[in-house]
Amino acid sequence: MADRVVKEAVGVRPSDDPPAFPGGPGRTGDTDQYRAVDLIADGVRGVPPEQVPARLCEVAVRLLPVTGASASLRSGGVPVRLCASDERTGRLAEIQATLGEGPCVQAARTGAPVLARDLTRGADASRWPVYAQQVTAAGVRAVYALPLGTDALCVGTLDLYRDTPGVLTPAELGTARLVAGILTVALMALPREDEHDRADGASWLNGLATGHDEVYQAVGMIMAQLGVGTDEALARLRAHAFAGDRTVREAAQEVLAYRHRFDTEDG
């Protein structure tokens, strides 16, 4: 299934001759985009469908001059992390959800790639000052966010993290777009509850939705406690998460467990 998804994403069958991809050599200087297709196919071959997105993130790190990759789905203004190449990158992905700013948030909003080449200074650092401070403190210097979905609908982003400032070459950007395209097709091909019964009665998507639901359940509680609207309640939750060095989901869990009430805060 995974191999078929990869081939369908680039419009070729396993038996087809290599297409003439633009972009030329990739990261190693001798790997064009058709070779990248084969490497991606090898990376996901044999893995269960629900593990394909995470495996694609891992493959992206091997194909590109980046140190981490994550994928997030767009949902109600809060990026919901889908997967990451490693634990550190997963934590970095949560920063944007907590702050509500960053390349991922911008790419999801506009449906266009956002390439932050240097978050230590200049335009990129001033564009998202708090986000830039947070990720550079964690050792990240550049972030590249590519939309997932179609021209008409962005469903999420593929985010690539790098520990040194710099740009992606045209060939590297082409490879990143290729991974994003294959990831989009993989997401669309994953089984839904009405297509594939699981022994535990739930699809893998339910686990993803849990994090989103926790955030918005907490937002609802804050709205009731303070008598404010959705945007203000979400902003208060994010501020609470940031002040306590938590992710927005961890802060939401604290609210849901009644360990914190906003209507009892001082001031």
Q: Which features would summarize this protein structure in a list?
A:
five-stranded antiparallel β-sheet; alpha+beta; Arc Repressor Mutant, subunit A; 50% helix; 13% strand; Beta-Lactamase; globular; 11 helices; 267 residues
Summarize the model shown:
With 267 residues, the chain is of the alpha+beta class. Helix content is 50%, strand content 13%. The chain has helices spanning 2-9, 33-44, 52-63, 87-99, 103-110, 122-127, 129-137, 170-189, 204-226, 230-243, 248-256, and strands at 68-75, 78-84, 114-116, 142-149, 154-162.
Tell me about the biggest sheet? 5 strands, antiparallel
CATH class of the largest domain: Alpha Beta
Q: How many separate helices? A: 11
**CATH homology group of the largest domain:** GAF domain
Strand content: 5-15%
Name the shape in a single word: globular
List the helices and strands and how they pair.
Elements: H1 2-9, H2 33-44, H3 52-63, E1 68-75, E2 78-84, H4 87-99, H5 103-110, E3 114-116, H6 122-127, H7 129-137, E4 142-149, E5 154-162, H8 170-189, H9 204-226, H10 230-243, H11 248-256
Description:
It is a single chain. The chain has two domains: 2-189, GAF domain (Beta-Lactamase, 2-Layer Sandwich); 204-264, Arc Repressor Mutant, subunit A. 50% of the residues lie in helices and 13% in strands. The chain has helices at 2-9, 33-44, 52-63, 87-99, 103-110, 122-127, 129-137, 170-189, 204-226, 230-243, 248-256, and strands at 68-75, 78-84, 114-116, 142-149, 154-162. Strands 2-1-5-4-3 form a five-stranded antiparallel beta sheet, sandwiched between helices. Helix 3 packs antiparallel against helix 8. It starts with a helix and ends in an 11-residue tail after the last helix.
